[in-house]
Amino acid sequence: MTVRSKDWVPDDSFHDLIDGEFKGVKRVRDAWDKLGVTLGDRIVTSRDPEMEQLAKELRRETLPEGFEQWQLPIVLGQGGRPVMAFITSGQPHALIPDHKHANDAVFRVVLGGSIIFRDSELIPGDWMYVPAGQSYSFRAGRFGCVVMHLYNGALSLTREAKH
User: Fold this and answer.
1) For residue 163, what pLDDT is reported?
2) Domain ranges of the chain
């Protein structure tokens, strides 16, 4: 289910707590369990046989029209606020409308194509950091885009003046 861009609001519910566990962490764990796969202490890659099915299980359907998104089957960090990773692809010129994430900072890396943010075209290897609570929007470039982004709790990097 895609949503018309003008009606879209971000779904940040993956950091909601359900019985003491983050919804996004539970979602990844449930997908692994459903397929009978354990991560354990082994190295995994996106090319491992079970990853294609995990991608299907972890597809998100809450994006504006012209975009698709998948939660990656790995959760980084432990304890208070895990880092969850996503891959998003966008059709040429598709719009992520102005929005903000109240409780999450977002780190995006362009993997393919480009995104237009303000007056800049970000190309593969370029990245953007969006602090929690900051409004922003972007548009996929003329060839579309593939972007990886990480969500985590806000971290202030500002320094207070010393007296």
Assistant:
1) 42
2) 5-153
Please check whether residue 64 is in contact with residue 2, taking contact to mean a CB–CB distance below 8 angstroms. Answer: yes
Environment class of residue 162 by beta-carbon count within 10 Å: exposed (0-12), middle (13-18) or buried (19+)?
A: exposed
What residue type is assigned to position 44 of the chain?
V
Answer whether residue 75 shows pLDDT above 90: no
- Fold classification of 5-153 is Jelly Rolls (2.60.120)
Q: Please state, in angstroms and as integers, the Cα–Cα distance from residue 54 to each residue in 14, 29, 59, 149, following that order.
A: 17, 11, 9, 18
Please give the structure tokens belonging to residue 7: 């009606």
C-alpha distance from residue 107 to each of 5, 84, 112, 147 (Å)? 22, 11, 16, 10
Distance CA 36, CA 44 (A): 15
Per-residue pLDDT of 36-45, as tens digits, reads 887 777 898 9
pLDDT digits (tens, 9 = 90+) for 104-154: 889 999 999 999 999 999 999 999 999 989 999 999 999 999 999 998 865
